[in-house]
Specification:
Low-confidence stretches of chain B: none
Helix content of chain A: 25-40%
CATH topology of chain B: Non-ribosomal Peptide Synthetase Peptidyl Carrier Protein, Chain A
Largest interface: A-B, 12 and 11 residues
Low-confidence stretches of chain A: none
Oligomer: heterodimer
Shape of chain B: globular
Distance between the termini of chain B: 9 Å
Largest sheet of chain A: 11 strands, mixed
Structural class of chain B: mainly alpha
Number of strands of chain B: 0
Distance between the termini of chain A: 25 Å
Largest sheet of chain B: none
Mean pLDDT of chain B: 95
Number of helices of chain A: 14
CATH superfamily of the largest domain in chain A: Thiolase/Chalcone synthase
Helix content of chain B: 55-70%
CATH class of chain B: Mainly Alpha
Number of strands of chain A: 15
Shape of chain A: globular
Number of domains of chain B: 1
Strand content of chain B: under 5%
Order of helices and strands of chain B: HHHH
CATH class of the largest domain in chain A: Alpha Beta
Number of helices of chain B: 4
Order of helices and strands of chain A: EHEHEHHEHHHEHEHEHEHEHEHHEEEEE
CATH superfamily of chain B: ACP-like
CATH topology of the largest domain in chain A: Peroxisomal Thiolase, Chain A, domain 1
Structural class of chain A: alpha/beta
Strand order of the largest sheet of chain A: 5-4-6-7-1-8-15-14-9-10-12
Amino acid sequence: MSKQIDVVVTGLGATTPLGGDVPSTWAAALAGESGARTFDNDWAEKYEMPVNFAATIKVKPEEVLPRPEIKRMDPSAQYAIIAAREAWADAGAPELEPERLGVVVSSGIGGIWTTLDAWDTLREKGARRVLPMTVPMLMPNSPSAYVELELGARAGAHALVSACASGAEAIGYGLEMIRSGRADIVVCGGTEATIHPMPISAFAASRTLSLRNEDPQGASRPYDTGRDGFVIGEGAGIVVLESAEHAAARGARVYARLAGQGLSADGYHMTSPEPEGRGQIAAMRASLAEAGLAPSDVVHVNAHATSTVVGDLVEARSVRKTLGDAADGVALSATKSMTGHLLGGAGALESIFTILALHDRKAPPTINVSDPDPELVLDLVRDTPRELPEGQIAAINNSFGFGGHNVALTFTSV
Amino acid sequence: MAYTESEILEGLAEIVSEETGLPTDSVQLDKSFTDDLDIDSLSMMTIVTLAEEKFSVRIPDDEVKNLATVGDAVSFINNAQA
């Protein structure tokens, strides 16, 4: 087998409940801020919704994008394009042949605002009032296509969908595109814009959302005994992956290396994780194997940990089983405690947190853990960031999705 | 109540401006939608859909190709008003 192509991260971009870009988001995460807010509208009363809060985007796209772009893109694509522009500029806007540039941007749910708005228009005003851009805006590959068009990418533009693992799967596919020789650079990540009464009511109906209406900022509390579900969030995270050779040739700044990915499916249940964590463990082991690393190389895990009663502990036990005794030295962070759950954007945003944790040697905190679950078998980073060791270190970002999709990405320091 | 030609131009300019980002005062009667305002077919259909609603008129699909300039559209809408 020929030697594996080395892949590095050379650009980061995001717009999130914590900030309109990566520096502000990362600073807020290190400071332990919450992006959750009570709705500034009448949804909860009007629709008798059981949930009256969410982790809404901090900087509205209307403040950043020109009006025609707002009208032409679903919010999920707006977030993606904002993050992609930041990531591309952060990478130094590299010049390369379009045939060597790929795009993979995923959304877990797709253009649901556009879909539902168009349905309202159809019912209220008839078919002739449905706008011609409706399909290009609602299709789940729309964010990927807009980024592809923006950059003129021709190596391929993809949009892998695996619910809340979508953003991580997109980054994993970017790794594959470079390792298989299809591209030198891939702009990849995830986005989501589902803070709309319908999907929130639907998630609430499945009893997966926190109902802590009186305390939105304290609602997302992974691994706390008082956790009662996740807080829905929105936003996008985009990373620029590049072959190490290409990055070195142009003298690019390198944040970290994406060393491996592991994928599996539970084959068990639509919404519940397989209780023994077999699929999660398989994904983490495969990721470490592709990276050529041992459990003892791992110093940090950014957990999927959404703040659900069952899911958090299954994952913690899976990490323990994967790493064995080496798990004792691992700093576990559950950043959804601050950002809420960005669904299809989560795996991408949390990859960015993992990359920056390695780069800055700081594991971000987990907030709201006033009473840690006694069954938590790992060392949780609480309240304030924790220093990570010097030298060559590795970290895993876990992402799991409805349907039993498991994705583990392994990053290493450079 | 019928709109005057200048009201139609003003309303159309707002729609075109929202769609393209061009300033409203660049939307003049003699401007070609494709050559001067760089409007593609999908944008043109969006403008037609929004103009139909705004002015309560019907612009049949086979008429749209005859609307080369802003002036053509203003005249069509003006004549189509009940």
